[in-house]
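SAMPLE LOG
Freezer: B-3
Tube label: C17
Construct: single chain, 92 aa
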Amino acid sequence: MALHLEITKQAASQLVEHLVRGGYVIRQIDARDARARLLVLTERGRACTAAAEDAAAETVETWRKRLGPTEFESFQAALSAIMTPGRVRPSW
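STRUCTURE (predicted):
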């Protein structure tokens, strides 16, 4: 997780602890490697993720309606030209 987020292991550990305390994830033992711990979304974590996805989709739809099909397509192309490929990462 630390590698993916490009943060220190200590910062990742603090983030995980915050998510566990908040009830968003639980830790489970990995059946394939007893030394590893899996992070599993709780019902609250799934609801939060769904709410974020809905909010993002609503925002994009607002842009689509405001710009119209041709300008929105150009907007998407411009964003694709400047974005960094790969997974989405937090901005901190």
